[in-house]
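## tool: complex_structure
## caller: assistant
## args:
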Amino acid sequence: MRAAIHSTSGALALAVLLLTAMPPVIGAETPNPVADAQAFRKFFTDKFPKVKLEDFVNGPYSMNEDMHRQWQEKEQFPPYDFSLEAGKEMFAKRFKNGKSYADCFPNQGIGIRQNYPQFDEKEGKVVTLELALNRCREANGEAPFSYVKDEMAALTAYMAFTSRGKPFDIKIPNDARALEAYENGKRYFYTRRGQLNFSCASCHVQNPGERIRAEVLAPAIGILNAMPIYRSEWGGMGTISRRFTTCNSQIRGVPLDPQSDEYRDVEYFLSYVSNGLPISGPGARP
Amino acid sequence: MSNMRVSEMWKFKLSLALLLITGSTPLFAASEAEFKSAYAAAEAANNEARGLRNQWTTTAAALAAAKRAAEAGNFDQALASSKEAEALAKASIFQATSEKEAWRALEIR
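## result:
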């Protein structure tokens, strides 16, 4: 009897210890994408009260009146035009098996950019537009394109162009894995890395509108809406994959492979918090 | 000049030469074995950083410099670069570990 009492009180003490030691399951740590997106929007509109919400998609050009005027002039003869034309031709060209990109996407791939990235519930992972394009190629017996080179930039430039003005509409389905992918992307965005100890947020949340060397930093909200972009610094077009890997190198971090889970997830996070802002790609940047 | 004085002069010159030789190089030059051990430690730390998905380009550069110096037979430089690489890799591990919680400080709420 005494042994039974001892064992019961011991178990009770252990249970109390565990309950008090464990953090509450519901609290500040619970992912809440809707609240995140609201806070994100409020942060940038409070920080830049003169910038119209839809103008954030113009990146550094939304931060500075002079640059905005230069950009408007540049848009008369946009430097991404050659890529857009190439992308349109590539998109229409049939694969060796007679099929085309149009067969892989809803609405024949026209005006759908704003719906990517998507969470694929079969795979349990985020699928970006770049990834979906290469999967389409492979499914039709074609070799995949490099994620950081001109062909992928041209294809996504054309697809973005057909979605211009359509607001980002990224969905997080009722699937714990989707929420986890979103949360992983958020963590990646805020995590410091590289020898320079920068996170994505160091530049695009803490310092948008400021200069880093000769560059004016873009705000994080709407930053992917203009992708892919022609960058004068690159002397050519760049995909989202190129942007992510280059950012990592610039802070002296070894980039991950393009379309690694981390990059797919951070694209998911950044696109979701820009829901409602119009697609403006392809874009041009200094 | 006496034989005694000539002998003393040679002794002096010899001592000076020895002094110059020992002064211009480290007292104990690094060996290939020391380099290999330091390089292995640096590589192990860098592999740990890879596991944390947080390698630094500067670690890779220091490892490459160590290898180049060793191939040229300069084990002092090879050892120094290996140690630098290990220190950088360990810093990247510390960063990745501390950021597991610290990232929240930057979060927009």
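## assistant note: Chain A touches chain B at residues 28, 36, 39-40, 43, 186-187, 190-195, 197, 199, 201-202, 205-206, 249, 252-254, 256, 262 (CB under 8 Å). The domain at 33-285 of chain A is CATH 1.10.760.10 (Cytochrome Bc1 Complex; Chain D, domain 2). Handing back to user.
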